[in-house]
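## Example record

The block below lists the input lines for one assembly entry, exactly as stored, with component labels intact.
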Amino acid sequence: MGALLDFSFLDDVRRMNKRQLYYQVLNFGMIVSSALMIWKGLMVVTGSESPIVVVLSGSMEPAFFRGDLLFLTNYQEEPIRVGEIVVFKIEGRDIPIVHRVIKVHEKENGTVKFLTKGDNNSVDDRGLYAPGQLWLEKKDVVGRARGFVPYVGIVTILMNDYPKFKYMILACLGAFVLIHRE
Amino acid sequence: MNTFLSRLNTIFAFTLSVMAGLTFLCFLSTVFNDHKTLVSINTGKIIVKSVPDYSTSREKNDLGFVVFDVHIFNWNVKQLFLYLTAEYTTQNHKLNQVVMWDKIIRRGENAILDYRSMNTKYYFWDYGNGLKGNRNVTLTLSWNVIPNAGTLPKVMGEGSHRFAFPDEYSHHGLQ
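Predicted structure tokens for the full assembly:
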């Protein structure tokens, strides 16, 4: 514990030569770019602009709770059917919504209008849609839920609720990667 | 490198790995389950009315009322979202699906369902006027399996029921 107080952990940095310092910085860059590559790669494979989402509200309880993680796909050739859980965006709202499809009206040419509802809500989502909007269309869909892991996104929830916590975590992670010597 | 923090870090990392491994095994053990069961559905009294749906527009849309029986036996899954779908074709729309009833069954709750003379939970609004005289409305029961961790399969029960709406609007109340 004392290490934190007298800043002796910085000795690691002092003992590094320039070459090692560059190596650490490059290593940090590698981690960031790998994460970005994995994310973009997933976008290509799943066809969804946001292949992994964290559930932010309790409107789908008891299926999904706040902090649960969902894996999405968005293949255009797969038709939208009732019972499916879709993630959609509404004009004027920043945060996408995860709800279940309860009505589908599809035309011969494939254009589809559908209505959603949260399992935990007593009414459908028309009140959440943009003013005057009665139906969702394919263009509103960010993805359809395909996989589920509980609790994993709780860190995201904490970071969302407490921005200071977010900056602390980011600072700690950054410092650790830069300072820590293998 | 045997400081308190590094030990804490090792324990934390190991715990996380073990939990991730166990969760993955849990997912693997159920991934090939087909979650199927037999379903029997029947309809009772069927009425179609011309009622203005004020939540959407002032135009009159067809509204159907269905009373039905559902018997499901022997469930073998943990957490389910059960829903009854009416599927039909109209002139304007080649495929219409409306969820008329749903139920959440959590782990440990009674999973043998036998409902008789049950009314629908949601109104059966058509997009236009396609219900009156519709000869071919198919009812199916499906369920969405919510696992502890893993895929979210959507399964349609084996067994469906087909019914027709009357050719005339009913001008009396339900029942």
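Confidence is low (pLDDT under 50) at residues 70-76 of chain B. The interface with chain A takes residues 3-5, 23, 55-56, 79, 81, 83, 85, 92-99, 102, 104, 106, 122, 127, 142, 144, 146-152, 154 of chain B (CB under 8 Å).
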